[in-house]
Write a structure and sequence with these properties.
Layout (H helix, E strand, L loop, with lengths): L1 H21 L10 H5 L3 H36 L4 H9 L3 H12 L42 H50 L3 H15 L45 H33 L11 H32 L7 H23 L14 H23 L8 H21 L7 H35 L6 H15 L14 H13 L1 H14 L13 H22 L1 H7 L4 H30 L5 H34 L4 H37 L7 H9 L8
Helix pairs in contact: 1-21, 3-6, 5-7, 5-22, 6-22, 8-9, 8-10, 8-21, 9-10, 9-11, 9-13, 9-19, 10-11, 11-12, 12-13, 13-14, 13-19, 14-15, 14-16, 15-17, 16-17, 17-19, 19-20, 19-21, 20-21
């Protein structure tokens, strides 16, 4: 029933998302004859959808109120004895052991039963939300097109929607409390039954069940207890198979022996990263809508030119950078079998990076920027805390590696530490003013822009993958040598390719040629890395269907190859004539930064956080996150690449610039639709992260009953 309900809600949200991105087209005078004859249709449909959403939430709250009333009545009803038998039969090994210890002891519990929750604050009836219906508009039709009227209605809808969301959260909390109260009452009754029972058959059956639950294989059933002998040299035993980066996996997610300080810090990194992902992509969602509804607002702070760098920098430095560093704070000491050198440095880096993104976003929205250099729009005083955070992280990781208890430095730490070193160099090149004159600034911009993507995000993320992919497959990386080959060739070729963004520009022709050759050379690390990852899957493909992390890794690997090879193809002079300065580069950047970096980060987060908290996300919502992100990315990139190719052909034919704008209009609608699906997937991800981190107390009837028998047994449960 829950799955059907989820599918229904998912279809409704998808339909609303689709309409919300396409409806603004009908409000534009340039959209066609239909828009001219119905200029307010888009706004009317928006109001209709908002009304449907409010009414739907109100109906849902009304049904929940009925459930609350039913739960309240159930609390006063007698406990069903057959449910208590079910609780007894479903006891786990620890509960059975605690109960048998109690029965074997001659001392009876003298403690008084724990009291039930005395009072509960009830919510107002959901029907009160429907007490006041908005009066129908009695003004002229043109009034709906006034900006002031639209803003007023939106401002009214915002607190209403926020209030409904709060009501939903509060209602769910009340239902959870009522359910726990009912379970506590059942636990009281179960405790009485267990305390008075002397049935030898029940005790014998529980002992038998405990033995069955505790049974484990010795893991030597096939090999026996004798050590292997190889008198004829038939067995190839490797004595130096590499670092043991993988622990034996179990079906249930158990919390490993991780320092609570490290766990807390890593979760804060990932939590802040999740916040910036929502913030940055919400801005991006609004920008996508503005492509088809450019007159959505007239505020300078919300103009496209100011919000676009807010979007890119928030997801670059806030989401991706914090997610990478958060995962690295776990990986670097883990593969060295040691502890992180300094938690204080880790916390300082977290604070400084968040400070950078906050100040940078405010400055960009206020019009304070670094003269338009792409991805370096933050002025240097704003970017300085980020640079200090990188230095602190580098010192921290180097000290951690120096204290390692392993002989080798695992390849993941090679990539992570090298990425930080290169990024410090990149930041110095980009912000020191000595060569920022004329064409020198153009060359520095090309170097910074591409190195920021390849030597910070890509190099760092690959290091994270080299740990988490083998860990999730429970097998070592296929080839250490391929990893080293990819590492050094990426350092060799990627540092040369920045100026392929300025083909046919006034910069030296030989420098453009070097960038093209370097772009061709990038095929070596990409093919080596892709081969290494795919061959690691060899013999483990059957695990994909039973894992919610491996599909994210597979998508990241696919886009790592296709997106990187696409970048090589774009570097040639012939393709530059068609694709450069079009939306093809926008599609390519999302194919790489989103398809590679984001999917790899999500895979690492889903792999790590349950190991730190012991709580897994709702798997169906992980699936919703995966498919919405993947389908949204396809809807976003494929139409843009196709339309941009046609636009480049128009330019080569000497057509007017405005013809290309008209041509791209339908493809921008697809961009908005795909962006909406991607943004919706981030909401699912944020909720999944919340479920993995926040502890929601639910009463276990059997455990609560045994605790009531003897409070001294509480520690054994």
């Amino acid at each position: 029933m829950k799955i059907k309900r989820f599918k229904f809600l998912f279809m409704v949200m998808f339909f609303v998302s689709l309409l919300s991105t396409t409806v603004p087209v009908f409000g534009q005078e340039q959209a066609g004859v239909f828009a001219k004859t119905h200029p307010q249709l888009g706004f009317i449909l928006f109001i209709a959808l908002a009304t449907i959403g409010i009414v739907s939430l109100a109906v849902w709250l009304k049904s929940r109120q009925g459930r609350i009333n039913q739960e309240t009545k159930n609390y006063d009803a007698p406990v069903q004895e057959d449910k208590l038998d079910t609780y007894i039969k479903n006891m786990d090994s620890e509960q059975i052991d605690a109960f048998l210890k109690f029965k074997s002891s001659s001392r009876k519990s003298s403690g008084k039963p724990v009291g039930i929750i005395a009072t509960l604050i009830m919510l107002l009836p959901a029907s009160a939300l429907l007490a006041q219906d908005p009066e129908p508009a009695k003004t002229a039709n043109d009034l709906l097109g006034e900006t002031g009227v639209i803003i007023t209605i939106v401002l009214i809808l915002i607190p209403v929607l926020v209030g409904l969301v709060l009501m939903v959260l509060k209602t769910s909390n009340v239902l959870r409390q009522l359910t726990n109260r009912r379970r506590l009452k059942e636990a009281d009754r179960l405790a009485e039954i267990l305390e008075d029972t002397e049935d030898p058959e029940l005790i014998a059956s529980l002992e038998k069940r405990r033995a069955a639950l505790d049974f484990q294989l010795s893991k030597r059933e096939l090999s026996g207890n004798l050590s292997p002998e190889d008198n004829r040299g038939l067995i190839n035993i490797k004595s130096n198979a590499g670092l043991p980066v993988v622990e034996p996996k179990k079906k249930a997610v158990k919390r490993p022996k991780v320092d609570p300080k490290l766990s807390k810090m890593v979760l804060w990194y990932l939590g802040c990263a999740t916040f910036w992902l929502l913030f940055g992509t919400t801005v991006g969602e609004y920008l996508g809508i503005k492509f088809v509804a450019p007159d959505a607002d007239s505020l300078a702070w919300l103009s496209f030119g100011r919000l676009r760098p807010v979007h890119t920098n928030a997801v670059f430095w806030g989401w991706a950078s914090l997610a990478m560093l958060g995962l690295a704070n776990y990986v670097v000491p883990r593969v060295g079998n040691t502890r992180l050198a300094s938690y204080k440095m880790g916390w300082c880096s977290l604070i400084l990076i968040n400070l950078t993104v906050i100040l940078g976003s405010l400055c960009l929205m206020a019009g304070i920027n670094n003269a338009g250099g792409e991805y370096r729009e933050y002025i240097w005083p704003v970017m300085l805390p980020f640079a200090i955070a990188l230095v602190l992280s580098l010192i921290n990781f180097l000290n951690t590696v120096a204290r390692r208890k392993t002989t080798e430095i695992y390849i993941a730490n090679w990539y992570i530490i090298a990425a930080i070193i290169f990024t410090i160099v990149i930041a110095l090149v980009a912000y020191l003013p000595w060569w920022q004159n004329g064409l020198g600034e153009t060359i520095a911009q090309g170097y910074y822009m591409h190195q920021g993507v390849g030597m910070w995000f890509m190099l760092f993320t690959l290091g994270v993958v080299y740990y988490f992919l083998p860990q999730q497959l429970n097998k070592p990386i296929y080839s250490y040598s391929l990893g080293i080959l990819a590492f050094w060739t990426q350092i060799l070729f990627y540092t040369l390719i920045g100026t392929h963004h300025f083909i046919f520009s006034p910069i030296p022709w030989w420098l453009q040629t070097v960038a093209i050759v370097g772009s061709m050379g990038m095929a070596i690390p990409v093919i080596a890395g892709t081969t290494n990852f795919l061959m690691t899957f060899k013999g483990g493909w059957h695990k994909v269907s039973g894992s919610y992390t491996l599909p994210f890794f597979i998508v990241g690997i696919i886009f790592y190859f296709t997106g990187s090879m696409q970048g090589t193809a774009e570097a040639f002079r012939t393709t530059n004539l068609y694709w450069h300065f079009t939306d093809f580069t926008v599609a390519h950047s999302h194919l790489t930064m989103y398809g590679i970096i984001c999917f790899f980060m999500w895979a690492g987060i889903y792999a790590l956080v349950p190991r730190l908290t012991g709580k897994e996300p709702p798997q169906i919502l992980v699936g919703a996150h995966f498919w919405l992100a993947l389908i949204g990315l396809m809807f976003y990139t494929v139409p843009l690449m196709y339309g941009s190719t046609l636009k480049g052909i128009l330019w080569m034919q000497g057509k007017p610039f405005i013809d290309g704008v008209v041509l791209m209009a339908p493809y921008w609608v697809w961009r908005a639709v795909g962006g909406s699906l991607m943004w919706l997937s981030h909401l699912f991800f944020a909720y999944n992260f919340y479920r993995m981190v926040v502890k929601r107390k639910e009463v276990n009837v059997a455990s609560a009953a045994i605790k009531k028998l003897n409070p001294s047994l509480n520690q054994s449960l």
